[in-house]
Amino acid sequence: MPSDSMESYSSSQRSCAYVDIRKETRGIDLKEEIIQGLNRRPRELPSLLLWDDTGIALYERLKAECDDYYPSQREDDLIRQNAIKIASELPSNGIILELGSGNTEKTSMILSALQKQGKPITYYALDVSPEQLARSLTALRRSFSPQGRIQCQGLLGTYDDGLAWLVGKPKQTMSAVTILWLGNSMGNLGRAAAVSVLEGFRLGSTKFDLRFVIGIDSCRDLDLIRRCYDPSTDLTQRFLLNGLRHANRINGTESFREDEWTCGGSYGVTERSWSQYYIAKKDNCILFGSCMFHFKKGEKVLATRSAKWGDDDMSRISKAAGLQISTSWKTAGNDYGIVFSYSSVVIRLWCTDMLQQACTCWNCERK
Does residue 42 have a cis peptide bond before it, meaning omega lies within 30 degrees of 0? Predict the structure, then answer.
């Protein structure tokens, strides 16, 4: 079974809850990303600005206190109902690498099912927040003994760092790899970026038996979507505006004045995605780094997006990433179905929807 003892970690790293795998030890260069985003048309800010400790705490409150915030509850219910089935599709003595692991509450249900099935697994939580990683790993290690079959480790870094780490792992340390990507995180990227991540892991993991478990929100109830992401509610406003405060901290000055910005949102029918924006209340300009940016009253700056992709969207995305959808099982109208696995390289897709909760199996096309 793979373990961190196989890696060249320092004693100080082993004593921590996670290992820093970032290529750039000073962290993600969000300052440069912000400047690049503000130079684009339409303008945007990196969504990572939302996920500092304050943002994470506000998001957890949003999930707990907003009755209309459906995505997390839908996915939570679906995993709880199907954790044993998910675990049965994962091989023993493999690893699970979770992208953007967050609080790992849903992941814990899958790991518990694996433990009940007696499968040795090493789980790696990958996140950009050292504080969140430490909290999550502490909680997991209370549930899963270090001497047990489920080993829990943490990796500090981005998706790219996680891919580089995986590519550098020798095949003899692991044979089967499952990429866990929950919370509709793929839908936060947009189609092109989602394809890039999927294809990157596919091409970078050819020496492993590769699987994906992905959570996708496919809701089509526009009224529910609007209520879920309503940018006028206090918690949602605070969550979004905290991204501007984070940008100000990075710049070392109050570049974005909160009294000059408000928040808004809209659903794009073509993109099948809800977008949240910062909207300028009046003409203003900011100095960020050495760059001056001018904004007109009413101009929008993208803060984040949440795609609502259906089967046709996923078919196009998977094809573009070099993957092929093979079958699906669904509740509600279609009740339940059968999983077909045509090769050892399989992707499991778990969809959440008000009317339909689905799991779609993908087979990777061998190159």
Answer: yes
